[in-house]
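This section describes the prediction task in plain terms. A model, or a person checking by hand, is given the sequence of a single protein chain and must write out its three-dimensional structure as a string of tokens. No templates, partner chains or ligands are provided. The sample shown here is typical of the held-out split.
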Amino acid sequence: MNKYMWLLGMGLQKALAYRVNYSVAILAAVFPIILQWVLWQSIYQYTKADTLYGMSYSDMLSYVVLAALMAQALRTGFEYDMAEDIKSGGLNRFIVQPLSYFGYRLSVFVGTNLGYFVATLMVMALVLWVAIQYWVLPTQIIHIALFVVSAAGAFLLQFMLFYLLSLTAFWLHEVWALFESVRVISLVLSGGVVPLSVFGESLQYGFSLLPFQYLIYFPLQTLTGAISLEQIFSGLLVQWGWIAAMMLLITVIWRRGSRSYLALGG
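The expected answer:
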């Protein structure tokens, strides 16, 4: 356990050393937020509707701002290093050392991204305060507490998703296009661009059968009080169920992939 805590600490030190990168990333999120604001303002003004897709203009604006920040909080990047380890023989050192590769990657991921994640949640808290004060967003303390739980689940689920995706490097020669394709698909299906209610009930039901909505849409529904406590608790069970299922799938695929890796001589 101590070695994983050390790795976590090293990742945190690395993140602090490059904290300017985080500021740039947050600033980069401002431009799409402005585009969304202009788009939805035009739509609501054109339709002259008080609500669209079950959301008022202030609700929609709050959502797109929070969703953009949440997407930044869930950024990854380790998948490229992991694919390179598999392709270049970097896994060899984990075969001869008593160190779990999964534990190594998780520790470094948490250490590198935890500071960014917490800082983004603080920015989201500021946005939420503005929304409550000026847009009368109906958020309660219980919703905020449950959001923290769901956000932690989203953080872990995002890691699991891209770790699982990285394991395809055992069999695929080029994985860059796969990573970027899934990243875009995940952003849309998680509700990172627009609320999933925009797609209609049929598609939204289909999306609910996938893990993506538990990355952004479900946590934000929890935060804003758009769903009942019963729905929140059942959603948390599904979210953490997906985490457990992915962990099991990762274990199975890792064993098969590592056998192939050893058979080829690393």
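For orientation: The chain has one domain: 2-263.
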